[in-house]
Amino acid sequence: SLSAGLDLPGRFLFATLTLMTLIAILVFIEEAVYIYRKIPSSKRSIIIWINAAAPVISTTSCIGMWVPRSTMFTDFTAGIFFAIVIHKFLMMMIKECGGQKVLLRRFENGRFTISTGPCCCCCLCLPRVPITRQTLFWLKLGTFQFAVFRPVLVFLSIVLWTNGNYVLNNLSPKGPALWISCFVGALTLFALWAVGIMFRKVRILLKCKNIIPKFALYQFIVILNQLQTTIINIFAAQKIIPCAPPLSSTARGSYIAQQLLIMEMFLITVISRVVYRRKYHDLEPPECVDEEPGDKKQTP
């Protein structure tokens, strides 16, 4: 068994990381109860979903750490949940502006700057797009497609994996892993692009709602869960991370990624509790939004 193969420092590390995961879950449950009691029902579920991202990723990483054979399923579960959270974050920004109708009235003469990351940050020549119901629909579609297609691709990957055709470390053009990974990467970039376009427009308006630190936490989850894990897996596949018997390079890279995620998601869970709770107290009066100038200077 796994515990039998661990020395005393290894068992202490596993116990500490498991304790951090349990604390993160308890912190989230306490925050969810607070949100349920204090936040209007129109925004309640969205904020709970976003706050759940870090503890869910921490939990799946902890399960994958203790049960190595479940790593593929836990990674896929975290990926599906995170795809939904990206869409929820975009919807939260729209809700914080008062909803779609209020947002359209507030930015009646405004324009979206689409030359932003991660897709078009260098394309400064791109035109600014008017803020209309149609452009809002395309932004919501940009994140919604990821929430829909990511689970479909995960299901396809699991079916191919059970049949022995899907090998995560086999990135040859003849294997399905490379093509599925590239397709998921493209969908992820489009979803993050939509969120970046919306944030760039509403960040001044929603400054009093702590949208900047919330977006920073969201970005940290993106970087740590997606980019960091991918880099570690590539290093493990190329044998840059040496094997340590009985663990191969791939298994050791997976352990490193999971243990880092548990510690990082624990910190993000605690910080999220502070950021979101402070924001609720500051935004009880609705006049907070009405007094924010934002892009009102564009309106006659």
TrEMBL record:
It is found in: Membrane. One of its GO terms (cellular component) is membrane. It comes from the Eukaryota. Its main location: membrane. It is a multi-pass membrane protein. The chain crosses the membrane at residues 12-34, 46-67, 73-91, 137-161, 176-195, 215-236, 256-276. Keywords: Membrane, Transmembrane, Transmembrane helix. Coiled coil: none annotated. SMART domains: Solute_trans_a. This is OSTA protein. It comes from Helopsaltes ochotensis. The lineage of its organism: Eukaryota, Metazoa, Chordata, Craniata, Vertebrata. The gene is Slc51a_1.
